[in-house]
Amino acid sequence: MKQRHLRLNILFAACAIGFIQHASATELSYEHQYEDVSKDHVDEIELSHKFDSGFKLAGALKFKPHEQANGDSGKAFHDDRWHESKISGSYTIQLNNDWQLTPGFSWVRKQNEYKYKPSLKLKTAITDDTHASIRYRKEITDASGKKNKKVDRIDLGVSQKIEKVTLGYTYTYYHGNQNLFDKKRNDYQHEIEAAYKLTKTFSPYIAVKNESVSSKTDQRQTEFDIGFALKI
To answer: How much is the pTM?
Structure first.
C-alpha cells in the first residue's frame, strides 16, 4: 500500500515538473477550517497550475492537530499532523461565450482509506458579473476492512461580483449507499462565501457552511473557513 502511494506521488511530481514550463497561471491557497460542534481544526494548503489549453492540475495537503489526552479535538495550530493528501485534474471546455463544461477527477489519500471523485461541471454567465453552475460528482471511498461507500453529490451554485467583492452561495445534495445523516441515505449542505480582491494577485476570503455532524443523528453544525488565494 505504501509503495503504491509513493508511486502515485512520484508520478504526480513528474507531471507537475513536465507541465510547469507551460503554465499560464499558478496559484497557492491556504485555508483554516473550524467546526463548532466537533471542535475540529483543519489546515489545508493547495498549489495549482492552470494552462492555456484549459487543463488544471492541483495538489493539496491537509493537517489536523492531534487529539488531546482526554479525547477532545486538538487545539488550533498545535501539534499538527498530516491528515489528507489530494491530487486533482480538470479540463475546461469553452462551449461558447457564456457556457463552460468541466470534467474532472480527484484522488484523495487518508490514513486508512482512499477516495476517488470523478465529476462534471456546467457553468454559465448570466451577466458579466453573475454566474451559475451545476456539478455532479461521484465519491467512492475505499476504506480498509469496510464496504465501499458510494455517494452521489450535486452542487448548485451562484456567484455575484460587486466591484472587488465576490459573493457566492452553494447548495449541495448527497445520496449514498450508506446512511449519511439522521439514519438516512440523504444529506445536504449550505455554504456562503465572500472573497475580496485586495490586489491583482492576493484575495482573502471567508466561508460559512451548515453541515451534518453524524449519520446517526439529526444534529447539524457550522463550519467556519478563512483563507486566501495567491497568484504566483
So the answer is: 0.87
